[in-house]
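Sequence design from tokenized structure. All designs in this work follow the same two-part layout: the structure record, then the generated sequence. An example of the structure record is given first.
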């Protein structure tokens, strides 16, 4: 079972990367969604140096972002909200104080939604209801639950993908391939045409393995084709996106169907997002987390990707050690059952 560990704000330092490698992660994932290309490359270089110092064979994965509407930046990076609280969201890249307004990185925000619309933030950690369209750039929303808004998180409003803009951004990343030397590239499925263009732009593609990310209904509709496409070495089930882009109550069945299809075509499949999040605080994981990982293994997935657990959690190595214990227990059970 492949273990992929996301590297983010709380784990990019040499000390944490070292712990993650020594805990037994198989791959480090770097997401280009939340920082500039230069900042992300700097984090990759820190990991490369640690990897070389430890003489580790751990692999590096660069994760290409989809085009999404995101919250902007704010000084404290997080902002606590309460259920029923009303807040102003405004088109902007930055806000000095979220009590004044929460920035949203899109123009004419007021024209992209409507009163009473429900919108998920991030992986659905917070949901909001639009109460008023103040003007073309500004809306008033009501919080539907307690939680924390995080800078740069996705605001799930339907948007038309600017394919050429996205492709140009990917090209900027690809210009640094010799510098960052990844082993894997994760690519979101957008549509057949643009994905073919993305693949064509990867320099010396045979040097890298490519992972196709399933994030929405469009990806699900093309699953059989993607499983047979030799451009893609693995399938990644992005449960964070699927859980807000599709009815969440169907997610378990969707995951099982993807694993089943991938196994039919002998295409390795990775399950991502909210696998052992309880280990960010708990010593013993929640029973639902234990059972989730157990069923992922029993269903035949080939790997798991930790996101918040190792990117934002303060003890990423512990999450990996817990995963290894569960994996070993399930594999032992499978051997006995055979």
């Amino acid at each position: 079972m492949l273990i992929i560990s996301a590297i983010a704000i709380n784990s990019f330092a040499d000390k944490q990367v070292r712990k993650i490698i020594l805990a037994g992660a198989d791959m480090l994932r770097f997401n280009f969604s939340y920082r500039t290309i230069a900042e992300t490359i700097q984090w990759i270089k820190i990991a490369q140096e640690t990897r070389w110092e430890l003489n580790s064979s751990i692999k590096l994965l660069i994760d290409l972002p989809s085009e999404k509407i995101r919250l902007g930046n704010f000084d404290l990076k997080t902002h606590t909200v309460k259920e029923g609280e009303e807040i102003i969201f405004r088109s902007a890249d930055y806000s000095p104080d979220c009590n004044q307004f929460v920035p949203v990185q899109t123009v004419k925000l007021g024209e992209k939604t409507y009163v009473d619309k429900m919108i998920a933030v991030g992986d659905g950690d917070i949901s909001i209801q639009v109460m008023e369209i103040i003007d073309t750039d500004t809306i008033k929303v009501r919080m539907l639950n307690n939680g924390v808004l995080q800078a740069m998180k996705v605001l799930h409003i339907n948007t038309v993908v600017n394919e050429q803009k996205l492709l140009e951004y990917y090209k900027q990343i690809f210009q640094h391939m010799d510098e960052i030397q990844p082993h894997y590239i994760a690519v979101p499925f957008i549509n057949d045409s643009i994905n073919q263009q993305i693949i064509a732009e990867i320099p010396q593609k045979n040097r890298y393995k490519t992972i196709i990310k399933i994030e929405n209904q469009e990806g699900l509709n093309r699953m059989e084709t993607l499983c047979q496409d030799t451009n893609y070495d693995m399938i990644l089930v992005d449960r964070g996106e699927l859980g807000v882009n599709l009815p969440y109550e169907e997610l378990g069945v969707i995951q099982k169907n993807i694993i089943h299809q991938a196994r039919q075509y002998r295409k390795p499949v990775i399950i991502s997002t909210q696998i052992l999040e309880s280990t960010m605080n708990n010593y013993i994981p929640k029973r639902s987390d234990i059972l989730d990982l157990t069923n992922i293994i029993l269903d035949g997935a080939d790997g798991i990707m930790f996101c918040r657990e190792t990117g934002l959690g303060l003890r990423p190595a512990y999450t990996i050690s817990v995963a290894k214990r569960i994996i070993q227990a399930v594999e032992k059970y499978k051997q006995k059952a055979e």
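The chain has a mean pLDDT of 95. We note this feature because it recurs in several other targets discussed in the main text.
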